[in-house]
Write a structure and sequence with these properties.
The chain is of the alpha+beta class. Helix content is 20%, strand content 40%. It has a 12-stranded mixed beta sheet with strand order 7-8-9-10-11-1-2-3-4-5-6-12, with helices on one face. A hairpin with a 2-residue loop joins β2 and β3. It is globular and about 55 Å long. It starts with a helix and ends with a strand.
Length: 208
């Protein structure tokens, strides 16, 4: 076989081998696009969830609207208006103000990953059951903090019912289960901003 023919044959074998992977990735991205659009176009989403990691377990309620969220968990309430974050710690009666990075936000809101799939992740659609599709996001860069996300996306509501996240320096998954969800709430932007009047005795610490 001539060199040019050998190169062409190798190229064709490569393309034929990657077509199923590309189709699978496109299908996974299309599903995530539909899910992200449904979430970001909503005037408000209410979610009750439980989270479990090697550091322990917790439960919480999060309200979402676009890139904003209000998260309430035992002993802590966090507001985020898209730029500024306020975290109230009940035990200390204090509020910390910051402007977090996207990686820092992942520590507070387990649903921040929704916008990450277009930023340095490969996508894979795995065989699934009747209720949900399974999408695996894997970071291209080994130094990325969030290395892998496994989503179980419910077919009808197009919302994740289970999330497994693996961080760079951890051998254990963070497991998040959605226990309840209301998709079409109507939240004013003001609920995503800390109101000092509601916490008159709290010490405010500005970390920006």
């Amino acid at each position: 076989m001539r060199r040019v023919d050998a190169c062409l044959f190798s190229f064709l074998m490569f393309v034929m081998g990657t077509l199923p992977v590309m189709a699978q990735e496109n299908e996974a991205e299309a599903l995530l696009d539909r899910m992200a659009e449904r979430i970001h176009c909503s005037n408000g989403i209410w979610i009750q969830y439980s989270a479990q990691s090697d550091e322990g377990s917790s439960e919480g309620i999060i309200r979402l609207k676009g890139g904003k969220f209000l998260l309430k968990s035992p002993g802590m309430t966090t507001w985020f208006d898209g730029r500024t974050q306020w975290t109230y710690l009940e035990a200390n009666d204090e509020v910390n103000i910051s402007e977090p990075t996207s990686e820092e936000l992942q520590s507070f809101s387990p649903f921040v990953w929704i916008g990450l799939y277009k930023q340095g992740y490969t996508l894979q659609l795995e065989p699934s059951g009747k209720r949900a599709s399974v999408i695996v996001m894997k970071a291209v860069d080994p130094d990325t903090d969030l290395q892998q996300v496994r989503l179980y996306v419910e077919h009808i509501e197009l919302f994740p019912i289970e999330i497994r996240m693996r961080r760079k320096d951890s051998s254990e998954d963070i497991l998040i289960k959605v226990k309840g969800c209301k998709m079409d709430e109507n939240y004013p932007d003001s609920i995503f901003v800390f109101n000092k009047k509601d916490y008159p005795t709290a010490e405010v610490i500005d970390l920006r």
